[in-house]
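REVIEWER CHECKLIST
Item 1: Sequence provided? yes
Item 2: Single chain? yes
Item 3: Sequence as submitted:
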Amino acid sequence: MEALRFRQVHLDFHTSGLIPDIGVRFSREQFADALRRGHVDSITLFSKCHHGYSYHPTEANEIHPGLSFDLLGEQIEVCRSLGVRAPVYLSAGVDEKEAVRHAEWLLKPSPDAGADFVNRAGYHVLCYNTPYLDLLAAQLDEVMRLYRPCGIFLDISDVRPCWCQSCIASMRAEGLDPCSAADALVWAERVYAAYCRRMEAVVRKYSAETTIFHNAGNIRRGRRDIAAFDTHLELESLPTGGWGYDHFPMSAAYSRTLGKPFLGMTGKFHTTWGEFGGFKHPNALRYETALSLAQGAGCSIGDQLHPSGEMNESTYDLIGAAYAEVEKKEAWCRGAETLADIAVLSVEAFRAGTPRDNPADIGACRILLEGKYLFDLVDREADFSAYKLLVLPDEIRLDEALRARLAAFAARGGRVLLTGESGLWTERDAFALPLGITDGGESEFCPSYCVPRFAAVNGRTAYVMYTPARRITVGEAEVIADRREPYFNRTAAHFSSHQHAPDREGVSPAAAVCGNFAYIAWKVFTDYAQKGELHVKELCTNVIERLIGAEKSLRAGLPDRGVATLTRQQAENRYIAHLLFAHTSVRGKGVEVIEDVVPLHGVPVSVRLPAAPARVYLVGADGGTEPLAFTWDGKYANAAVGRMEIHAMVVFEMA
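Item 4: Structure as written out by the authors:
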């Protein structure tokens, strides 16, 4: 299949049937001009939107009542004349006109759920286990036959338990119990798989090369079976639209372990989809697209076409400010492999039903990002041998199979960090690995206090820890920090001051390193996700440094909000250190924005290499290169960026 492009636009066009004069201001010239000003090389175009209408002549559906010509066909022709890729979008899970006509096709997310068509302005999801699937397949077949697109994007597609009459009857016919939530989920998995196979069969009837992606708004960690239905991944992650700036690095850290090309999808909007008249500052898109490149992804920026069909010139000037830079940087990103020292075993991937925003995963990723560690987020199927350190955050209890894999990993020299309940047996409170530590159960005191034995920023004192701790005793292990208890837990019968009781005398071990293993007794990553305390990060990074500090592949002198990654282009025999920094501020009610460029000066960067590089240079936003002086100490090539704004690419070219 054709490789994904780096500069995609996702051109939403969800347009009510109540709006007239669709496409009256469309012109091939203006559409082409917008793509050129935006430096766009791929654009997703609409066949059918959430309202259910097609934007081209159709026998399988209904053309939008306000449209009198083949808008999709015109757009595709312009794209082909420019050499721009043009995947085609169909709303799969939503078709509002059919939802109104066929209430029996509606998804029922619970046995007593009912659709609201009176008080709620919004779309209604349809069930694939109804005749709607036949209609959708016919619509997709028509698109493939008429336009032979290079790609198909099917939206609002996910595993969804349903209690419509069709699903109830099907479950009973298959020997499943509709009264059982577990059985309903089993049936939902079958329905989703059947839908994916049906869509793929339609596409492959016409083309072996057309890409297929089913969008659910998030790549579910641990569901390789779901990702297998996609030829590539598009990571929907609009920072201001509810995903936040933490989400994309996490999503990318897992997605790149699946062996599929992927795009990072942000938006031009100040908030999220459907915001006409909303614009980010150009510096925000410059940062977000650079972050995609740094994480090993191509770029996709969401826009929404006006019903008139006229492309908004301000939007494509905004997009062009980012994509002009991406275009110049592509040579150092094409075919690049993202390197990682650390694997975080995702709680979402490990335990079914865990939400994507679980605090253990979030806290681990935040600490590693802020500490400038190179990491992937992995599932149980990952090859652990590719990493120097495995982190099991807070809630990963072990069965025999996982215990054996971890023991073998450590025996080969790998390091393992366990926190909270991680490392205990699934069925009992005892460590499953030779940590030199004995578990004594969970302490009844919460919060409690951490007393570090290392030099913390605020000294060796008692620091409050907000998650429960395990009681442990230590044998051969080296103790890194101790636990101190409060006078009592806070209750209505006895409390002290405004929050919690202070610490009292006496300590017991709480964090220790034993050979290739380390253990921290609190759920530190959950704690950091919820509270963000400096001393929690200090405790975690101190332990990580003891485990792999001398072997880190990258060191970078960036502020805490800076991001550092390392990629390798094997064919070109070079390594690229990506350094990013943007100042974020919160506007309105929780919208995190980027506006000002805050330059950094004299940023040191060191990369661990197999030999001294032949040369080191900086790639500028214009694609120009600037030689950098460097030193070689036998393991690391050391350089410094004199000045960086938003994104710096430091290239270490080998002989």
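Item 5: Key structural point noted by reviewer: Residues 438 and 466 are 22 Å apart (CA to CA).
Item 6: Recommendation: ____
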